[in-house]
Amino acid sequence: MSEIYDVIILGGGPAGLSAGLYAGRSRLSTLIIEKGQDGGQIAITDEIENYPGQMVDGESGPELIARMTAQSVKFGAERVSDTIKEVSLEGEVKVLKGEKEEYKGKNVIIATGAHPRPIGCKGEREYLGKGVSYCATCDANFFEDLEVFVVGGGDSAVEEAMYLTKFARKVTVIHRRNELRAAKSIQEKAFANPKLHFMWDSVVEELYGDDILQGMAVKNVKTGETRKIDADPEDGMFGVFGFIGMIPNTKVFEGILHMDERGYIKTDEDMHTNIPGVYAAGDVRVKSLRQVVTASADGAIAAVQVERSLSDYF
Fold first, then answer.
1. Cα 110 vs. chain centroid, distance in angstroms?
2. Which of 105, 153, 188, 282 could be bridged to 5 by S-S, CB 3.0 to 4.6 A?
3. Predicted TM-score (pTM) of this structure
4. Does 139 qualify as catalytic in the annotation?
5. Which domains does the chain have, with CATH numbers?
6. Could you tell me which of 155, 160, 154, 176 has the C-alpha nearest to residue 240?
7. What is the C-alpha separation between 61 and 189, in angstroms, rounded?
8. Which member of 135, 210, 232, 270 is catalytic?
9. What is the SS3 assignment for 110?
C-alpha cells in the first residue's frame, strides 16, 4: 500500500474498534488491521451483562462486536486482514510489514490484546464459553449456585476464586503444588472462606461433556492417580476457570517499546508509549482492570490523542 494513513490501528477488539470509531468520526484516514475475527477474547463469550448501555437481558460477545465493527466502518475506517511480522516505529512515518502487504501511517495505535495462558488439557478449546472461562468478573453470574473449579495458585487465581464464591455453590482451587503461590494476606482470606476448597498436587488432564462441560479427569502429580469428577446430575454442568496467567500479544514490539516484566506495554494515562506517535490501548497495556468497557475507553482516548497531535486546534 502506498497510502500513508493518519492512523493505523492494530487489532479489532473493543479497544481497536473504539479507536476506529473515534478516529473515523474525526475524519482521520484510518486503517484497522486484524489478523483474525473481530472481538478478541470477547468474541468467545456467550453472554455479556456488564457493558453500559446494552440490552438489560444481555447479549452475546459476537453481537456486541458486530455493532462495534459496523460503527467503525460507518465512519470510514478501512479494514484489512493481515498479520504484522515486523515494525519500524521511529520517525514521522511508521512502517508495518505484514504477511500480505506493507502499511504506512503517521500514528499507530496498538490494540493487539492479550490471551489467557491455556490450562493445556484435552477438550479445553471445545468448551470455551460452554463451561470453560478465563474471567470471573465476566462470567461468574452464569455459574450461580453451581459448582466451580479454578485452576491456578497465584494471586489472580485465588482472588478470582474468592470472587466466584459470591455466586457459585462451591469453589475448588486445583493447584499442581501442595501450597499456594499467592501472597500470604490473600491466602489467609482464602483459607477462612467456608465456600472455598483446595485440591493439591493436581492438574486437569481432560474436559468432557455433550454440548456443555459436564466432567473432567484430574491427575495427582505425586501419585500418578487419575480420577474423574462429574457434575451433579441436578446441575447438569459445572465451570472451570483457568487463571494461570495472561500472555500479551506484544512479541513483535519486543526491544522497541517499553514493557513490564510480563510483556505488557507501558503507557501514560493518555495511552502514549515511549515512542512519539505510538499508542497502546486495551488489554495489551499495563493496567489494573481488563474489561470491555475499559478497553473501549482506552481506544477512544488513544484516537483523540492522535487527532490532537494532527490538529492545529489543540
1. 14
2. 105
3. 0.76
4. yes
5. 4-116+246-310 (3.50.50.60), 125-242 (3.50.50.60)
6. 160
7. 33
8. 135
9. strand
